[in-house]
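[SOLVED] Predicted holo structure with adenosine-5'-triphosphate

Edit: marking solved, answer below. Original request kept for reference. I posted the sequence and ligand SMILES and asked for the 3D complex as structure tokens.
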Amino acid sequence: MTLVSSGIPGLDELVYGGIERGSIVLVSGSCGAGKTIFGMQFIYEALNRGEKCAFISLEEPVERVRKYFSKFGYEINKFEKEKKLLILHIEPNEIASKIEFQTKKKKMLAVNIRQTPIFFSKEDKIDRIVIDSVSALESAFTEKKTYRLYIHELFKNLRSTGATCLVLTETYGKEDRYSRSGVEEFLADGVIVLYHFKHGNQRLRAIEIVKMRGSKHSNKIVPFNITENGIKVYPTEEVYTNL
Ligand SMILES: Nc1ncnc2c1ncn2[C@@H]1O[C@H](COP(=O)(O)OP(=O)(O)OP(=O)(O)O)[C@@H](O)[C@H]1O
Ligand SMILES: [Mg+2]
């Protein structure tokens, strides 16, 4: 088993060294919790080690994604030119209508992932993939059964590439539920939750590793913060609720 760094200062200590190469990890949190920044940092660290990465945005156009990277000082221009970084913007509706059309035509639930806008082949030789976020995708499907089937196929495809993947999902404050459909957390190898909870008259940030298949991880919920340099996790500190 090879472990790779998450790229987030302090986080690798919580997962005893890093994330398993080739695994799919869900990063879940409410709006503004820090999911996109987490994903960008995960990619930027890898780019600097010469890895090839893809950032699939299902929410923001490419230009806005680029701007967001540069806001944190992440110089991605050169990596895009060298074709080490691929940023794609795909409209969730484009995926949903294509899949729903496929299943209608066949009069059965069947997804040919090769004909969908998100498909990776082994030849792409991508080391890291971030998908931001599948919640946007879930809302675009009229048939939730079809969405579930699609997510199954998408995860299979991601796994077949050997890339280490982050799938971002939005939560709605329900405990034990890390995505809208409730399927993604079972398909993923790992689940990381970013909390942004109200305490008195302020919000505090905390992070938890809910699962990391096949490896030891901390069971402690610890604080993190976001600055102009991105996310930093404090693995040995307590979440201060007595402020
Ligand atoms: N320079 C900064 N300093 C401190 N905090 C910042 C800075 N930039 C952004 N943030 C915090 O990060 C939050 C946004 O993080 P991010 O875009 O990763 O959230 P998200 O979970 O992807 O949200 P959404 O669900 O809306 O996409 C902001 O709401 C803000 O609280
Ligand atoms: Mg986001």
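OP edit: The chain has eight helices and eleven strands. Thanks to everyone who chimed in.
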